Automatic annotation (TrEMBL):
SMART domains: HTH_XRE. CDD domains: HTH_XRE. It holds the Pfam family HTH_31. It comes from the Bacteria. The lineage of its organism: Bacteria, Pseudomonadati, Pseudomonadota, Gammaproteobacteria, Lysobacterales. Residues 72-97 are annotated as: Disordered. GO terms for molecular function: DNA binding. Residues 82-91 have a biased composition (Low complexity). InterPro entries: Cro/C1-type_HTH, Lambda_DNA-bd_dom_sf. It comes from Stenotrophomonas ginsengisoli. Residues 17-49 form the HTH cro/C1-type domain. This is HTH cro/C1-type domain-containing protein.
Amino acid sequence: MAYRTTDELLADIGQDLRQLRKQAGLSQALLAQKAGISERALRNLEGGQGSSLATFIGVLKALRQDSVLDALSRPAEPSPMQLLRQRQQLRGGHGQG
């Protein structure tokens, strides 16, 4: 994999987001509204001018592309109800058989 500077990565990501937006048939105004950001923030992001992480995540979610973040985020912890069900299943499983 070739080395890319931060500026090159920002430009590439911006171009990719622009392409995804266009493929989805969304204007910058509509995507910005769906993402809860300003059009200017979206223009900056698409233009590779940098942006906040919150803006980037909002745009990914609005484009339904936030699965790309799965590799970076921690797995969700089970809810207390899920833990209780698991314990009940384990207890029930040991008593039978």
